[in-house]
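This protein record is not my work; I was only asked to verify it. Take the sequence as given and treat only the C-alpha cells as open to question. I have pasted the whole thing underneath without changing anything:
***
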Amino acid sequence: MMHPVLKKIDKKLAQIPSISAITDYLTGSELNSFLLEIFQARTKKITHTELLRQFDENRFVQPATVDTIQIKKLELKGLELAEEAGFSVVTLSPLVPLGSCSVVGKVDQNNVVSATRGTEIVSDATNVLALKIAAETKKRGKGLNLLQYATVHRHVRGQAFDNPAFSAHFSVFCLATGGLDTGDFAFESEQLVDHLEWHYQLLSEYFSDEQLLIKIFLKNRDSRFKSRLAEKFGEEINNGKVECIEEENPNDYYQQVQFKIYLRKQDQLIDMADGGLVDWTQKLLSNRKQRLFISGTGLELVAKLSEKLKNSVDR
C-alpha cells in the first residue's frame, strides 16, 4: 500500500507540465521523499554484478592514489601548526546544506555532488567554515573577537578533469578567519599576512625557499591598501620571492586581494595554495561590515611532489 505522503506527491506529479517544473510543484520535504522513493526502488534492481562494475568504473568511489601514511602525517602537521597559530581546529561533517557553495560562492551546482535530505557532499570546506563563523557570530552578537577555524577535509568535486593526475576527491587544508571591518584595510592586510605566512610555513616544511613563489593579486587600487601591503612585506615585494600584481579584470570570487603560492618545478609553476577575501559572511548575515578571509593548500599535491615527505616515511 502506498504511503499517504507518496499518494499526495503522486497527485501533484500528475499536474506537472514538465520535469523542469517539479520544484515549483513540490515542497522541499516532498521532493526529498520523492527522491528517496526513487533511490529505494532503484537499489532493489541493482545486482551484485552491477554493483561490482560500478565500484570499478565510477570515478567518485575510487580510492585515493596517494600514500595513506604520508597524507595523514601531512594532515597532522598542518593541524598542529594551525593550533599553534591560534586557529580552532574542527572536524566537519561530510555533508553540508544544499547550496552551500552555489548560493554564496557562485559555483555551478553541477560541479557539486548533490544529495538527499537537503544536503550536498562538501566540495569546499571554506564554505562550511564560513557558515560556522556566520552562525556563531549571529548567536554571540556584537563585540565578537576574531573567529579563526582550521580543518582538513576530503573534498569531492562533480566536474570531470582531463588531467589523469586529478581525482574526484582530494585532501585540502582550509583556514577561515571572520570578524568586523576595523577600518583602513587593517583586517584585510593582517589576515592576508597571517594566512599567507601559515601556508608558506607548511609548504616550507616540505620544499625549499628557492622552490616557492608568492604572488599577491590586488583587486583594489586604493593607495591605502597598497601602503598597508608595503608595510607588511617591505623589501620582499618583487624581489623574486613575492610578486605583487594589479589585476585589470579581476573575477568576483575574491574581493580586494588574493594570494597564491606556487611550486617551481622545472619550467612549471604549480599552484599549491590559494586564499583571499570573500563576501560570504556579509551575505549570510546581511551586514556589509563583516569580513571573511579564506585559504587552502592542496595536500594531495604536496604528498605527491615532496621528496622530503616521501623520505620521512619509514616502511
